[in-house]
Design a protein that fits this description.
Ubiquitin-like (UB roll), Serum Albumin, Chain A, Domain 1, 2 domains, five-stranded mixed beta sheet, three-stranded antiparallel beta sheet, 7 helices, Autophagy protein 5, ubl conjugation, membrane
């Protein structure tokens, strides 16, 4: 468990320098400087948007949060993918900071709108899917709703210890709660094709290679 803590902590501390800019075609009369931030790799862009919009709202007249979407290199960013996943999928060069364009018109059909607590629900659902494979969902189902909320709040507020105090239960591998399978989510290079299918390792004999099986025919778009 101490080793799990250290590895998870290093992953948690990963940051990506990002600069947000306004789309030139939509904000022709605006010469706003970029909004720059170090975004956690394990976080999501909608969690950073309030700060971004607050910054630009002092420069442009009004931006409707419900119409906002983000774009990189001509591709809309899916809000329910972690920032680190999007970066690894789409960033093909070493130039930093990563420049993300903020847009408000022509909302893309391939991107779902992030309404209400949809992001939190998506996050908790992914944890439930993983624990279904690891412990037949015994751990996650035994948790109280307050513990689910603590997991989410730890991520939102970037409080690792608050997050870890709950997450470590999901990492248990004991005689009574042995890990049955290792859940792996695979994102393909083709950003719009079959991205995010969930697989699990059907063999725990790592040394002899991993045997995997697709959990569902449904793509987790």
């Amino acid at each position: 468990m101490p080793q799990d803590y250290e590895v998870t902590r290093k992953l948690w501390d990963g940051r990506i320098p990002v600069q947000f800019i306004l789309d030139n075609s939509e904000f022709r009369q605006c010469s706003a400087k970029p909004f720059c931030a170090m975004i956690p790799r394990l976080s999501y862009f909608p969690l950073a948007l309030p700060r971004v919009l607050q910054y630009f709202s002092t420069i442009v007249e009004q931006i409707d949060p419900e119409s906002v979407w983000l774009q990189y290199n001509g591709q809309p960013l899916k809000w329910h993918y972690p920032v680190g996943v999007l970066f690894d999928l789409l960033k093909s060069d070493d130039l930093l900071p990563w420049t993300i364009t903020l847009r408000t018109k022509n909302f893309p059909k391939e991107v779902m709108r992030c309404a209400g607590d949809a992001l939190e629900s998506s996050f908790i659902q992914s944890i439930k899917e993983a624990d279904q494979l690891k412990h037949k969902a015994n751990i996650i189902n035994s948790m109280k709703s307050d513990e689910h909320k603590q997991l989410w709040n730890g991520l939102v507020q970037d409080r690792f210890d608050e997050f870890w105090s709950i997450n470590k239960k999901l990492m248990e591998n004991t005689d009574s709660e042995a890990i049955l399978h290792i859940p792996i989510r695979i994102y393909e290079d083709e950003y719009f094709c079959n991205v995010g299918e969930l697989y699990f390792v059907t063999s725990m004999d790592i040394g002899s290679g991993l045997s995997t099986r697709n959990v569902s025919e449904r793509n987790l778009q």
